[in-house]
Every structure is written in structure tokens, then in C-alpha cells.
């Protein structure tokens, strides 16, 4: 460790450290830019998947989400809710429940996707959330 005895030496050391800091910051910035440019080719498929995820999950004819929820409602209807019902009720009511849920998903698909994205994004800023109640945000207790 170098001993500093005068004000001039202190100023020179401070200037040297500032130059070294600027040099290291520039190296970090160039390294990050190189990593980004190298990773851009790998991130293209992920970007395409992100853009088309909503179309894959919910679309007008069929999608993953309506099929999964429809099958789940059908199973719950048959095995749990209407397990002791008659033959006709056991097979007709789950079909109607499945139809209602698929229509509900079809009509509210934008709201469902926004809700799901906000749920899984883990964003700490709740003011951007469409589900955030701004009426109680500034309430004094």
C-alpha cells in the first residue's frame, strides 16, 4: 500500500483511481454489449415463443387452456359433483359445464392472459397491474 504524505500526492492518486474506474466501467460495458450480441441469436426463438404464447394458449378454435380447463371441469363434474347422479345427468351436466367454461374463456381471454402474465411475471410494481386497486393505495390507517 502506497503512503500518501502531501495534498498533491492525494490528488494524483485520486485522479489515477478515477481513470482506472472509468477504464473498468468501459470494459464492463463493452463486455455486456458483446454478450448481448452473442446471445441475440439464442434469444430469437424465445422472443418468438413469447409473442405467440397467447395464440397458443387461447385461440378462437382450440387452444391449450380451454382444452385443459374443459377436461378438468368435465372430470370434476363426473367424478365429484355428479358422482351419485343418474346416467343422463352424469353425462349431460359436465358437458354443459364444459361448454360454459370454454365460452367464458373465449369471451374473457384477454383478461385471463393479462392476469396470468401478471401472476407469473412477479413484478414488484403493483401500480402497473390492472388488478391493483388504486382507491386504497394511499389510505391512512
Provide an overview of this structure.
This protein is mainly alpha-helical and 141 residues long. The chain folds into two domains: 1-39; 56-122, no CATH class. 73% of the residues lie in helices and 0% in strands. The chain has four helices and no strands. The longest helix has 51 residues, at 7-57. The model has no long low-confidence stretch (mean pLDDT 77).
Present the secondary structure layout.
Layout: H1 7-57, H2 64-81, H3 87-107, H4 109-121
Major beta sheet summary: none
* Cα Rg: 29 Å
Element order, helices and strands?
Answer: HHHH
Distance N terminus to C terminus?
Answer: 55 Å
Structurally, how many domains make up the residues?
2
Mean pLDDT: 77
The amount of beta strand, in percent, is under 5%
pLDDT < 50 stretches: none
Question: What is the 3D shape?
Answer: rod-shaped
Number of strands: 0
Task: Give the class from helix and strand content and strand pairing.
Answer: mainly alpha
Multimeric state of these chains? single chain
- The helix count comes to 4
Helix fraction by DSSP (H/I, runs of at least 4): over 70%
